Amino acid sequence: MVDILHKVGIKSSSPADVYKALTTLDGLSGWWTTTTTGDSSKVGGVIKFRFGNGGFDMKVRALEPDKHVLWEVVDGPVEWFGTKISWDIRQEGDWTIVFFKHMSWKEPVEFMHHCSTKWGVFLLSLKAMLETGKGEPWPNEIKLDSWEENRAAA
Amino acid sequence: MVDILHKVGIKSSSPADVYKALTTLDGLSGWWTTTTTGDSSKVGGVIKFRFGNGGFDMKVRALEPDKHVLWEVVDGPVEWFGTKISWDIRQEGDWTIVFFKHMSWKEPVEFMHHCSTKWGVFLLSLKAMLETGKGEPWPNEIKLDSWEENRAAA
User: Fold this and answer.
1) Before A139, cis peptide (omega within 30)?
2) What sign results for the dihedral spanned by CA atoms B130, B131, B135, B141?
3) Which residues of A touch B149 (CB under 8 A)?
4) Is the link from the previous residue into A108 a cis peptide, with omega within 30 of 0?
């Protein structure tokens, strides 16, 4: 099992702002994908993230206000199925630090390389949303290959 | 042992352009850090990447023109010492795809989370340099915490 790990700091934000960006449809739509639906605010709720034709369904597995969010992938690409996505939030001075883990990939396949960089792109979008008021969610985020470019144009 | 993995596609580029960006001081200074010195173009050469007070020395371990570059960290933070950084380049239609691995971290420490996201920031700078002519190397890249912010201001 292998994990994607990231850490991003957001200046002049707060754990409450980050938690809101991860647990409300408004927040999630502002940095990840504009087509986010479902129930993001309760343990057991299912959030549907869509990117044109494809996407992911995440079941909310744990919520600790302003501290921790855990999702389990219950539908999506076969490589994602059963993986978990963990968010931990910590304040350090004027910076809110987000520790991110996309856990339990079976193998370090090429798609995992892609998703690692793509999570980086979206975490920088989360940072931009909270620092400037404007994120860069799908379909306007940075594209990493022709497949993504074509999907966004479809 | 754990690895940082990334994959980034660069539109309307070529394997030769990417290889040049990874093996010349001009190229490396354009996307990673403006203070890059040493010998980046020969196996056995040592490249010195500096970010204010700190930085990394990499020994070039392998070079296959337009295909592969391998560096070994011979000086730098203790967590980086002895790790290797591997670059593989592949053309897919109009996109040049770069597979990146920072291999053989002893433990998935917090600093590894940070470096994973930071590699993402610099890989997007490499992409921007080749797509637009202008990268965002240190000290002007996106900052991820107060430590980085202070180092760049020093």
Assistant:
1) yes
2) negative
3) 11
4) no
Q: Are A144 and B7 within 8 A, CB to CB?
A: yes
Q: Which residue of B has its CA nearest to A102?
A: B113
Residue A153 has pLDDT above 90, yes or no: no
For residue A60, the distance in angstroms to the closest alpha carbon of chain B comes to: 23
Residues A29-52 have a mean pLDDT of 98
Partner residue opposite A94 with nearest CB, options B2, B97, B146: B146
The pLDDT tens digits for B65-123 are 999 999 999 999 999 999 999 999 999 999 999 999 999 999 999 999 999 999 999 99
In terms of phi and psi (left: phi > 0; alpha: psi -120 to 50; beta: otherwise), the region of B29 is alpha
- The ipTM is 0.97
* Single-letter residue type at A65: P
With residue B33 as reference, give the H or E element that holds it: none
Residues of A within 8 A of B123 (CB-CB) are: 117, 120
Enumerate residues 13 to 72 of chain A having a beta carbon within 8 A of any beta carbon in chain B.
none
DSSP per residue over A15-57, as a string?
HHHHHHHHHSHHHHHHHTBSEEEE--SSTT-EEEEEETTEEEE
